[in-house]
Amino acid sequence: MSVTILVGGQWGDEGKGKVIDLLADRVDMVVRSQGGSNAGHTVVAEGKEYKFHLIPSGVLNPSTVCVIGHGVVVNPKVFLEEVDNLHAEGVSTDNLFISERAHMVMPYHPELDRLGEVQRGDDRLGTTARGIGPAYEDKVRRIGFRIGDLQKPAFLEKKLRFVLRLKNEALTKLYDAEPFDEGAILDEYLGYAERLDPLIRDIYPMVRDAIAHDRKILLEGAQAIMLDIDLGTYPYVTSSAPTAAGACAGSGIAPSRVDKTIGVFKAYTTRVGYGPFPTELTDSLGERLREVGNEFGTTTGRARRVGWYDAAVARYAVETNGIDSIVLTKVDVLDEVPTLGICTGYMWRGEYWDHPMANISHLKHCDPVYEEMPGWMTSTRDCRSYDDLPPRCRAYIERLGELSGAPIDVVSIGPDRQHTVVRRDLL
Ligand code: GDP
Ligand code: IMO
Ligand code: MG
User: Fold this and answer.
1) How far is the CA of 39 from the centre of ligand 2 (A)?
2) How is the cofactor bound (predicted)?
3) Ligand 2: residues whose CB is within 6 Å?
4) Quick check: pTM over 0.85?
5) Is residue 427 part of a domain?
6) Is 304 annotated as a binding residue?
7) Which end of the chain, N or C, is less packed with Cβ atoms under 10 Å?
8) Beta strands in 210-355 (DSSP E)
9) Total domains present in the chain
10) Mean pLDDT of each 10-residue bin along the chain, 427 residues long
């Protein structure tokens, strides 16, 4: 087994960070493939909590090479803050590298993100305001700045003069906002250049050699299928492809090299930001699950919307990503719920749909079709093997696996590494 992809199967925050951390000591290299500091991955290791936005969650394992791939949009300020925080905790970043081809979030991107949301008014998306959409826009428009540009000060300066004219025109004329100062941006980014220089690599030969030597590589996806720019609930999505295909594109690894795709799913569903969410629980049970599951965003602190497990979404995730193996997280959050709902499909104007509709207005107004199962009403936190789990809990897990279309090989029953039940090794 040499290349494994890990993706989120719902609307993000499934616990991908925890799973990457669990797998990191069994792989030689972790490559983060898309997204930016909109992601928030929490890892709890030996009781200590770490929060990552850009740095791959494998960094806690000192011998694992961690790479930020070219599909990521990197805010150098956020990245360096994360590095400093890790150093303060005594964690080494000697094995951390950034692709020369990765694009940068520039100071005007978060401001344009914020202003874009204000302009949309009631139709705002609820972005993380980290400038992710505007940074990917510039990449596609071919006026983006790449990490490698930091190593070419004269080029950086010339390009900034051209690009900033466009940006300041938009800021002042379209949004009536303050323009950005070229000198200040240049000084700030040349400061980052000094610190980032030793980490910048053309990662192509690194990845090629790792594959040639049969090293184990794990591709770390951020976000999740339902936030995918094409397959998600557009326009209530992020601006990248958080799929297995996106992981290949964002790391430069051919799909034919991939041996396995792991999907991480929560035992229920959450979503941050606006957009359709068919199984959302807006009642007191939803509030209770939010409290018990501590469903508040790692990046923005916003309350996550909470709902029942949506097996139609899960099947869609399994099929579009080619997921072979599921990690089911936060099962412990359901410990005290008497009856559990599982959505198996949707009814829309008398018609049954077994997958999320492309038309988000239909998805917003459809009626989910539910199965109900009895809860187990006892704590799972101390279970260490699958057979330790209460029979009703196992029945729920089995049913989710059946409906989702892939085996549930690992069950997570708490945030720490030890709160993990392995039925079948992932790697
Ligand atoms: P990611 O974005 O997919 O990496 O997920 P986040 O880190 O944003 O959100 C998952 C949250 O759930 C984090 O605070 C984790 O520490 C926590 N977590 C992960 N697995 C479990 C679990 O099995 N049970 C509980 N109670 N918390 C978990
Ligand atoms: P991780 O990797 C959950 C959501 C935002 C918003 C939409 C667009 O932690 O799972 P953006 O800032 O990307 O333009 O916002 O996407 N979003 C996430 N929701 N987890 C994430 O990442 C997310 N990254 C973006 O809330 O609805
Ligand atoms: Mg998260």
Assistant:
1) 6
2) Binds 1 Mg(2+) ion per subunit.
3) 8, 12-13, 38-41, 125-128, 130, 132-133, 222-224, 227, 238-239, 272-273
4) yes
5) no
6) yes
7) N
8) 217-220, 258-266, 269-271, 305-307, 309-310, 325-329, 339-348, 351-353
9) 3
10) 93 98 96 98 93 96 96 98 97 97 98 98 97 98 98 98 98 98 98 98 97 97 98 98 98 97 98 97 97 93 97 98 98 98 98 98 98 98 97 98 98 96 97
Around Cβ 208, how many Cβ atoms within 10 Å? 12
In a domain, 85, yes or no: yes
40 annotated to a ligand binding site = yes
Domain termination site, one of 241, 262, 283: 262
Measured by CA distance, the residue closest to atom 27 of ligand 1 is: 415
Summarize the chain as % helix, strand, coil (round to 5).
40, 20, 40
CA distance 80 to 165: 27
Same domain, yes or no, for 179 and 320?
Answer: no
Q: Would you state the structure tokens that stand for residue 89, as one six-digit string?
A: 């905790």
**Do 61 and 206 belong together in one domain?**
yes
Report which secondary-structure segment, H or E, holds 68. strand 65-68
Q: In this structure, is residue 17 part of a structural domain?
A: yes
Residues 6 or more apart whose CB falls under 8 angstroms from that of 241 comprise 34, 71, 228, 229, 230, 249, 250
Pair (187, 205) in one structural domain = no
Which of 196, 226, 244 finishes a domain? 196
Q: List the domain range (segments joined by +) for residue 285.
A: 265-422
Check residue 341 and give its pLDDT: 98
Structure tokens at 334: 């359901």
Same-domain status, 304 and 341: yes
- Residues in a beta bridge with 201: 99
CA 264 to mean position of chain CA atoms: 10
* 426 phi, psi to nearest 5 deg: -75, -30
Flag whether 204 is in a domain: yes
Distance CA 122, CA 209 (A): 50
Is 412 part of any known ligand binding site? yes
Please report, for the domain that includes residue 315, its CATH number.
3.90.170.10
Determine the Cα–Cα distance for residues 260 and 268; give it in Å rounded to an integer. 24
Q: Are residues 210 and 84 in the same domain?
A: yes
Residue 362 sits in the same domain as residue 282? yes
- Which atom of ligand 2 lies nearest, measured to the CA of 300? 26
Contact, 53 vs 39, CB < 8 A? yes
149's CB contacts (< 8 A; 6+ apart) are 104, 155, 156, 159
Same domain for 212 and 76?
yes
